[in-house]
Structure formats: structure tokens, C-alpha cells
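User: Predict Fe3+-hydroxamate ABC transporter's structure from this.
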Amino acid sequence: MPRTPRRVLAAATALLALTALAACGTTEVPETAAGGSSEGAAISDSCAADETTTSTGPVSLTDDLGRPVELDAPAERVAVLEWQQTEDLLSLCVAPVAVADVEGFSTWVTAETLPDGTTDVGTRQEPNLDALYAADPDLVIVEASGADDEILAQLEERGVPVLATTGADAADPIGHMTELFSLIGEATGRTERAEAVLGEFEEHLAAAREEVSAADLPTTDFVYLDGWVESGNVSLRPFGEGALFTAIGEELGLTPAWTGEVDPVYGLGQTDVEGLIAVGEANLFYTGTDDPAGDYVTELEKNQIWTSLPAVEDGRAHAFPSGIWTFGGPRSSEQAIDAYVDTLTAP
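Assistant:
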């Protein structure tokens, strides 16, 4: 579960996922979203128009750590301790009753919007479990590093079902993202909604692929990156093979140019500005969200190596719009697709 860019490096170690479900009853999504507290809720236009059904029977599934999760009925009051899974829940039209780091989510994730008044249970790394259980969840979704995960162990002692998930799989980043979304859909009885959203994602990707194919690009080589400032120095994190945003670029017909070492789970590398010389003529894309911890882009723009890179000189270095979460679900991935297309096909 990568943190915000400045403290992300050491944060990559994770695992796998999925299975079954039962009976269906027609349940139109209420105006304030399906499941969870309706107080102060706000929902997307997509959810307002949603007419998919919500299952009502018992739920039996296996989480990403291979643990059985048995529910008498689909979860309605769900607490979530990671942003990708929070986004997924909202895309499924389920309003969470508690979330870790509401302010951080609202800064880094714009694909979905949390209802006003959603209970904040502290940081993703050190959640306030008393506040979490005061929200009376019938399921807690966590991102765990393994069966010995400390927070998972603490949660299991409380007796409320826990769905343990992993944030990434470099072997198949898009497949993992979609499987995680489907898994949360099963747990909440929203499988039909999950299938509809994933169908929209596939259609979005196919249409974008045609647009990029029709564009007369000077090169299809590309690197997506983010970065942070530490002790006055800029550190960069290129997304290599196995990263979600790299895989999305590849699906659009682009060619990854970062060949340096990456971590085995998220596909993320590390370099300084000089290290980007190795990517040659590649198009450059980077995170446009303002990190409260420091503006690495402003520092880059003062750097002669950065300003002399071919992509920067040719106007082929582009910031993505603010608030596109690089470790998100289908809706964040659609935002990334649009950002790639808009920059690559601009006159």
C-alpha cells in the first residue's frame, strides 16, 4: 500500500485473491448510496442512476490472504483502512461508515467523493481501532502485508469479520485491480454493479486505445513518475514494468522506457533527476497532485538536467490532473486513461 509519494519507497510488500456468492433480491440504490449510513451522504451521478441489484443471501468467499470470510448477509456497514478499497466501495455505491485518513483521501483521490461526515479513524498506518468499532461496522476491509500483519491481528481479536486484501500484483496489475474490485463487490452483495463498472472500464480502455493509435506520435516510449523533496534534494520514483499506470499505458499502445530496478509488487523504481537521461526521447508523465509535504515539480523546473531532457524541451512532459490516485480502482484508472489520451492527442 504505497503511501503519499514522499514516504512511499519502503512501503511495498504484499500478496493474492477470490471466490463465490448467492441469492439476489432487487434493491434500487437509495439516494444516499447502497449500504452504510445515509447521514450527510453524497453520491456520484453514476450511482444516482444505478439500477443494479444487491444480493441478499449469505456470503462465502476467500480473501487475498487465503482466509475464509463468512457473512450471514452482504456487508452494509463497512469500515475501510486503505484508499483504493475506499474508492472501490464508493464505486460500488456503498457509503463506508468509517475510513482511514479522510483528508488524505480527499486530496489524492478524486474519482469518488466521500459523504460528508464520514467517520475518520486516523492514519492508514496507525488507525484508531476504538473509533473504528464505535462506527459499528459489520465488515472491516484492510490492506495486509501478510498473515502476520499487526493491524490484522488486532482487528481479528475484536470479533468483527475482516476482509484482508493486497494492494498490487506486478505480475498482472490491471487484473489484480479488477479482481480486488470484484472481491469487494462480492462481500457487499454488489457483484452486478461490479460487473457493470468493469464493463465500462473495458469500453473506456478500448475507445482510448483507438484514439492513441490514430494519433501521429513522435514516439510511443513513455515513463510515468512521481517524486518528493527531502533535505532539499528531489527523489523520483519511475513507474516500471508491473506498475498499474505503466500497464494502462501499455494497453494504450505505449512502450515503457524505464528499465531500472523496480520493486516486485508495485513495479516502482527510484532515481534522481540524472537517472532520467537513460529514458532518452520518451514522453514523460507525472503526478500533478500538490503534496503538502513539498512541491517536487517546482524543484524539477529549476534543474538544468530536467529542463534539457528531450521530452521537456519538446513539450512532451505532462502533469496529470490533480487527484488521480496512482494506486486506485477502475474509476481512478479511467481518469488515468483520459489523462494519457488528452495529453497525447492534444493539437
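The chain has two domains: 5-202, 216-344.
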